[in-house]
Amino acid sequence: MRVCSVCEYACVRSKTPDIAARVEISSGEPRIVFHVCAGVCARVSQRRAAQEAAERKVREREEAIANRRQVKLRLLPPVAEPGPGSAVVRVRLPDGSNAQRCFAATCTVANIFDFVDSLDSTNYWKYSLVS
Question: Which range of residues forms the domain containing residue 6?
């Protein structure tokens, strides 16, 4: 005998779908209550499993983005002083906010992408920079 993880009745295995049973005491007299739990409980279990899988996928994606952010932050070159031989790059983000940083003339476009990836407000994998 096993206990159904959804309805917490004791399930009895038979030739037909699982039958769940539990003892209830009403008016001082115990009685056994049965219900077929295989169909209902299986669907509820499937929904729970699907929901947990979706939540796990979201957590894994958020962790991956956070890890990428830390890696990109370490790859960034030091901030250059504004003036000749440098450029200030301002990026407008989808939420309407702006981020800017001064890059040396020797920096590459990959450094600008690393800067965007390192921002806390970038929670997406794919994007394009447009001038």
Answer: 2-69
